Amino acid sequence: MSRSKLAGWILSGLLSAFLCLASASGKFTQWEGKAEMFGHLGWTSEVMFKVGIVEVAVAVLFLIPRTGFIAAILLSAYLGGATASHVRVGDPFIAPIIFAVIAWVALGLRDPRVFNIAFKAPTAESSTTSEPATPPTQS
Length: 139
Prior knowledge:
Elements: H1 3-28, H2 34-41, H3 45-63, H4 68-89, H5 94-110, H6 113-119, H7 124-127
Helix pairs in contact: 1-3, 1-5, 3-4, 4-5
């Protein structure tokens, strides 16, 4: 395994561990101030429990090679919602953006095709994969 692939897997594992253990666990457990904190963001504890389930599911899917790409898209959407929630109430919002970037970098290190899709200039061949349609003829 190459160094970059190993780094991608380490980053993926750390990100998924953070999402499951640090972030989602707070949505599943009871603690003082939980209702006030989620209420400040405009969410109830019941809704945040469901959000925690989604967070864990996406974090697990991110670690499965066959589902990593779609999980990165779902994770970006999830973190976009977190960013929007924090922006709406005037809280700092950079953390979810950083985690989304880390997710894509980790996936790109695991699978270089991600970086090729994102950063490689399209070739003339790929932009003209099909011939232009000809108009129907009248009889």
